[in-house]
Amino acid sequence: MKKSLLLLFLFITTLGGSKVSFAERRVYPLLTQGQYFSVYAFPQMDCQQLLQKIHYDDFFPIRPFDSKEDSCRELVAKTLDAVYLEVSDTLGINVYSFKGSIKIFPDREMLNEEYLTMFREGFTERAFYFHEEAALYLSFEDLDVALLTHEMTHVIISNYFIVPPSPKLQEILSGYAEYHFRKRLNLLFLKGRN
């Protein structure tokens, strides 16, 4: 009897003490699936606007987007894979076996609500990576190629090192990758990170 009460107590405290809460989390439909990411986005998201925000044409400059020949969703998947690979090459860190998800929320407010639901604490950033789910969470309103490359650096670092580098070193590497992309795409004066 005492053993079963102890096990019940441990089970309840383990559940109650868990930092991640899966109740009330938003579930968005699958937008596309690439080699490295399954992308989920809020239903009203404009796919072509997403492509512009992440500068797909700088990764595939051969021909412009043609809705008759290209699927916008396919181009999103290919562009995100290309960004992932280029960030990997920039860092000299390759994790070709990685498979994760990207979840795109309409704005920072909705992203912050999701963070609060998951971790029971406030959050005011434009994006975050949750290693336990291999999921990158982004605010569509704030999304640009610099933010994307910065966060993808966190994805790569988190999945490459057994013991992750200090947060300060992670931010230095993320800033380096972000700077590399801004310079390469001639976007050094793109709006700054808030």
Describe this structure in words.
A five-stranded mixed sheet has the order 1-2-3-5-4, with helices on both faces. The protein is globular, with a radius of gyration of 19 Å. α2 (47-53) packs parallel to α4 (72-91), α4 (72-91) crosses α6 and α6 (145-160) packs across α7 (167-184). It is α/β, with parallel strands linked by helices and 194 residues long. 48% of the residues lie in helices and 12% in strands. β1 and β2 form a beta hairpin.
Compact overview of the structure:
The chain has helices spanning 2-17, 47-53, 56-59, 72-91, 108-119, 145-160, 167-184, and strands at residues 30-33, 37-41, 100-105, 127-130, 135-139. The protein is of the alpha/beta class.
Please, what is the oligomeric state? single chain
**Which regions contain 5 or more consecutive residues with pLDDT less than 50?**
1-22
Order of helices and strands: HEEHHHEHEEHH
Structural class estimated from helices and strands: alpha/beta
What is the rounded Rg? 19 Å
Work out the strand percent: 5-15%
The largest sheet has its strands arranged as 1-2-3-5-4
**Count of alpha/pi helices:** 7
CA distance, first residue to last residue: 56 Å
The major pleated sheet works out as: 5 strands, mixed
DSSP strand count: 5
Helical amount among residues, as a percent range? 40-55%
Q: Average pLDDT, to the nearest integer?
A: 85
* Overall form: globular
